[in-house]
Every structure is written in C-alpha cells, then in structure tokens.
Write a structure and sequence with these properties.
With 483 residues, this protein is α/β, with parallel strands linked by helices. The protein is built from 14 helices and 19 strands. The protein folds into two domains: 146 residues, Leucine Aminopeptidase, subunit E, domain 1 (3-Layer(aba) Sandwich); 322 residues, Aminopeptidase. It is 34% helix and 23% strand. An eight-stranded mixed sheet has the order 7-8-10-9-13-17-14-15, with helices on both faces. Strands 1-6-5-2-4-3 form a six-stranded mixed sheet, with helices on both faces. A three-stranded mixed sheet has the order 11-12-16, covered by helices on one side. Strand 11 and strand 12 form a beta hairpin. The site of manganese (II) ion has 4 residues, from loops.
C-alpha cells in the first residue's frame, strides 16, 4: 500500500475517513453532516482510539463511503490504533483508494497514523494460490489530506521504518525450507543498492577463525552456516567505531539431538527473529540515510539432529578460546551468539554492542507477549533502551545479571556449560553471552522470544510476524547515536 499526502482530497478516493478525538463533536465538513452526527450517536461512536463507524452518504449524484475513526486522546499510540483500524477495516473491503481528512491533527500525529496503516497492511500471500478475488487486498493507496508542510518529510522517515519492519516480517514468516542461512544472505543482497556494505563468512572462513561453537550447532544440518555483516556508515567516516547489533539467526531450531517435542515445533522457523530484526533496522537506517555508523551481524545456522550432529556432552572451543560443554543441544542460540559477538568485537572494536535473540522459552514464561527482556552491563545503555522502547512501542523490561547467576554455568570439565539449573533460565542464558563481552564494552542483550510472533492481531500487525526490535533500535539510534 502506498502512503501519499495532498493538500486537497484526491478525486479517485472511494472512501473518506474523518478523524475524531474522544467525545469530540462529529461535524465532518460535508453536506450530510447532520445525518452523520445522528448515525454516530445511534451507533455509540464516541471517538475512542481505533473505534470505527462505516456509513454511506451522497455527494450530488454519487454515493460516497465514509469511515469515522476515533483518535482518542491523539497520543502516538492512539494515532497508531486509528491508522491500523483504517487498514484492518478497508484492506479487503473493495476500496482501492482512501483519503483521510487530517483536519485537527498535526503532522507528527498523522505520520504515526500513516505508519500504522501501512504496517497493518502487510501480509504474506506468497503461498496462497487459491485466494478468491474477494479475499485479496483491494486497498492500494492512502492519502493524508493535510496542508501541513512538515508532513511529507515525516512520511518519508516513517516509510523507511515501515520498509525495514516489513522486511523483517518477511524473513521471519518464511518457512525453514525457503529461508536458510544461504538464502537469508541472498535475500539481503539487494540492501547493497541502498549503500550497505555486505560481507559474508562461509564455513571455511569460520573454521579458520576457530568458531567451534557456532559450527558445532551447524554440523547436524546439510545447510551451510553463514555469518553475515551489514555495515551502514552515514557519517562519511566521522564516527570511527560503529554501533554493533548482533542477531541470533537460527533459521530452524529442531533442538538437535536434544530434540524438541513435535507439537509447536513449526514455530521454530522464527528462531531467526533476532537476525531478522537486525537486518530490518539496517534497511530502515539506510533508507532514511541515518547519520550514524552501524554494523548489523547475523549468525545464521540451522539446528538439526543427524548422524553428524553434535552430542550432549560434547565440548567445543569458541573463537574466544573459551571452552563449552554442550549439555543440551537445544540451548544453541547462545552457542551461535558467543562466536558472533566475539567476531563482532574483534572486527569492529565497538564501544557498544546489542544482541537480539529468541533465546529462551523461559522469557515467554516471565513476560508473556508484552515486553522483550533486557539484560545489560551498563545502566545508561539499559535506560536508553527502556526509553526508546517506550517511545517506539517495542517495550522492554530489565532483568538482573550478577556473579551469583554467572556461577551457575560453571562446568566441572570445561570453562562453562551451555545450560544452567532449571530456574532463571533467561538470566543464565544472558550470563553465558556476557562471558564473551570484552571488558569496557557496553553491552545489552534483548531476549525477544515472546515478541517476534503473534497468535492474534496486535496494534500494528495481523497474526504472525510482528517485526519486533526494528522500532526500538531505530529509535535508539535516532536519540543517541546520530551525528
Ligand atoms: N529457540 C529456543 C527458545 C524459544 C522457545 C524461543 C520457544 C521461542 C519460543 C531456544 O533455542 C531453546 O530451545 N531454548 C531452550 C533452552 C534450554 C534447553 C536451556 C528453552 O528455552 O527451552
Ligand atoms: Mn533451541
Ligand atoms: Zn533456538
């Protein structure tokens, strides 16, 4: 769907949207105003954020479809609820062009409405070959009717963000037979056109670097692993050290020899949601030509059981030289990340590194689907992420880390084991990654296991891939890492 803006109502719009704040008078600037007001009263439409009322009026000889949409208190969230409601209502309604009267709402508010409308239109129909015409989306454009000169610029920025989020959703939603390490990299190749520098390590490169943990996970799969690095420097070399994002990209997680139970295993196609978010934010930053230097790194592997798969009890040597006793092959995300974050630090010497991962089921037990878990060795970085999370809608909640938790992953035979005791599973997973963060590096770990996939529609998404992580990272860069 295309988002446009115009000072006047476009002639092709088959549907007109009027926005009303909570309890505002329903007085659309049209001939049949009284009829609309009465209809709103009888349907109890009172402008609550995201509420809608569908009706028809005549304009001369023509029938015009109207949609009244509530913008509540006009907060960012309320505007996004309104935008998403427009799309949810009209996406397959037969309406092709919709015009939204922006009267009474400022450019910033309208840009949030537009972003949400666009995000809510995303779906993946690639494999649905039998959709009837009526089931297919009809909505092709949404025009914001507003004379505010600030609006077009804001829409360009929001579009960059939307494109990033939708790219993440695509990668997350694709099944494991389509998206595997090599094809994940192939999908990212077009980012080079945006000015992103792409480098890729294959199995041989990683073996030469001693990435025994990442390769140990990959060895049970016929799919070759990859380490993908995307670099965006919008500072023209002014920022020497990049901010680093590192994503867990397990393109399918069967658990390996510590095989997961069958029911629900299909969910593990989205075990690359951290890597997906990293790629999406890189796309957004490049599209909006952010004045920042950022590198996004994805550790890409498939975790399969096989005659060559690693065994529980195997000991692997990581690129850092530290050894790991692999007690459970299903705790594979940390094994991928430990080599990826070490390589990131060796290669780019960042001051700040943030990793994202669908790391633990325990995270979903703790926070459900409302917050991602945040772990950090630096209070300032943690606060920045919490604030960016609140502002962007990708909400985070901080968990503790400490030496007492760290001790729980000591191994009697190697430097550490890859699982802790039964309790505090998300924290011991974070402690594992922390052992690969060099002194002086500000680090945060986002466990987004509960956030990348939704079983029911949410604020700006339908069921399925949410694109979680892109917005909080984009907002973080915007606030703190731009020149
Ligand atoms: N990818 C899973 C975590 C996960 C589970 C994400 C469910 C989203 C939904 C991860 O690789 C995993 O299997 N973790 C284990 C760790 C355990 C073996 C210590 C888990 O959480 O059960
Ligand atoms: Mn696993
Ligand atoms: Zn996993």
């Amino acid at each position: 769907m295309r988002i446009l803006s115009s000072a006047t109502r476009p002639a092709e719009a088959q549907c007109l949207v009027f926005l009303f704040a909570k309890d505002a008078a329903v007085t659309p600037p049209i001939a049949q105003q009284a009829l609309v007001r009465d209809a709103a009263a009888s349907a109890r439409f009172a402008g609550e954020a995201g509420s809608t009322l569908d009706l028809y009026v005549t304009e001369g000889e023509k029938v015009v479809r109207l949609l009244l949409v509530g913008t509540g208190g006009k907060s960012t969230t309320d505007m996004e609820k309104a935008g998403a409601a427009i799309t949810a209502r009209l996406l397959t309604s037969g309406v092709v062009h919709v015009a939204v009267d922006g009267e009474g709402h400022d450019a910033e508010a309208l840009s949030h409405l537009a972003l949400a409308a666009q995000l809510r239109s995303w779906r993946i129909d690639t494999y649905r070959t039998k959709l009837t015409e009526k089931q297919k989306p009809s909505l092709a454009s949404l025009t914001l009717v507003s004379g505010d000169a600030a609006l077009p610029g804001l829409l360009v920025e929001k579009d960059a963000l939307a494109q990033g989020i939708m790219f993440t959703r695509e990668l997350v939603a694709e099944p494991g037979n389509i998206i595997y390490p090599e094809s994940f990299v192939a999908r990212c190749r077009s980012l080079a056109d945006l000015g992103i520098e792409i480098s890729v390590l294959d199995e041989k490169d990683m073996a030469a670097l001693g990435m025994g943990a990442l390769l140990g996970v990959a060895q049970g799969s016929v799919r070759q692993p990859r380490l993908l690095a995307l670099r965006w420097d919008g500072t023209g070399g002014a920022q020497a050290k990049p901010l680093c994002f590192v994503g867990k990209g397990v393109t399918f997680d069967t658990g390996g020899i510590s095989l997961k139970p069958g029911p629900g295993m299909e969910d593990m196609k989205w075990d690359m949601g951290g890597a997906g978010a990293v790629v999406g934010v890189m796309k957004a930053l490049a599209l909006r030509k952010a004045n920042a230097h950022v590198v996004g790194i994805c550790g890409l592997v498939e975790n399969m059981p096989d005659g060559n798969a690693q065994r529980p009890g195997d000991i692997v040597t990581t690129m850092s030289g530290q050894t790991v006793e692999v007690l459970n092959t299903d705790a594979e995300g940390r094994l991928v990340l430990c080599d990826a974050v070490w390589w990131a630090q060796q290669t780019y010497q960042p001051d700040t590194l943030i990793d994202l991962a669908t790391l633990t089921g325990a995270m979903i037990i703790s926070l459900g689907h409302e917050h991602g878990g945040l772990f950090s060795n630096d209070d300032e970085l943690a606060d920045r992420l919490l604030e960016a999370g609140k502002a962007s809608g990708d909400k985070l909640w901080r968990f503790p880390i400490s030496e007492a938790y760290d001790k729980l992953i000591d191994s009697p035979i190697a430097d550490m084991k890859n699982i802790g005791p039964r309790f505090a599973g998300s924290i011991t997973a974070a402690q594992f990654i922390k052992r690969y963060i060099k002194d002086g590096v500000k680090w945060a770990h986002l466990d987004i296991a509960g956030m990348v996939w939704a079983d029911k529609p949410g604020l700006t998404w339908d069921k399925g891939a949410t694109g979680f992580g892109v917005r909080v990272l984009d907002e973080l860069v915007r606030r703190h890492y731009q020149g």
